[in-house]
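Problem: given the chain below (53 residues), write out its structure.
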Amino acid sequence: MDDEMFNELLKSVKEMDQIAKGKKKASREFTLKEPEVKNIRGKQASLKPILPG
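Solution.
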């Protein structure tokens, strides 16, 4: 790893530490929806397993 890439990585790690400690706000935020478990399970139950033979 060259010096430029290492310095960029180090900067990112320091920024992550500041965000984790609440000293800096993250530049992006993602919100994930909860999966529809019943729907997923229903689809899996309808699939037939593939057996060797």
